[in-house]
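Marked as duplicate of an earlier ticket. Keeping the data here for the record.
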Amino acid sequence: MSEAWREVEAPATEIAVRAQEPDDVAALAELLNQPQVVRGTLQMPNTSAEARRRRLEGETDAVRLVAAIAGEVVGMGVLTRGRDRRAHTASMEVAVHDAHVGQGAGAALMAALLDQADSWLGLKRVELCVFADNVRAISLFERFGFEREGLFRAYAYREGRFVDSLAMARLKGLRMADSPPSLDLSAKSRS
């Protein structure tokens, strides 16, 4: 597979991607409480900075990055490596402040996280879930080589109803279309 994500055009706005620091908690709490971030992720609305701090302190195994424009944190990305027999994998999360969507922060975070995955962690598979109606995020993930693997129906409860989520993954050196066919476990195959 070509590493087309390395060729993604640089944004016009200067975006700095760096490691997340303890001093970022207030900015991250504000970012993660944005209406569109809450709608597009599994975050709960109105979560306090203290609750965010406690959660972040408990997650020490993850690569945590932030994107900043003019020193202001406008996005965050997390790469959480699998363990034991899934040590070749990681799950990925990306969120961008509502006021900065479309300015390149998501792409900058994706590029930095995938560079960590490929160049420093030697990961074969990076996976994520995205709400099936989040067309903008799906498009971004596909630009970085992620492919759709499946649909989780009624995955989460949001705004008074159940919504579906797509399972997506990027396998280094392998496109999904190149994979051998999988076993059909549908009810039709068992009859």
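See parent ticket for discussion. Residues 4-8 have pLDDT under 50 and may be disordered.
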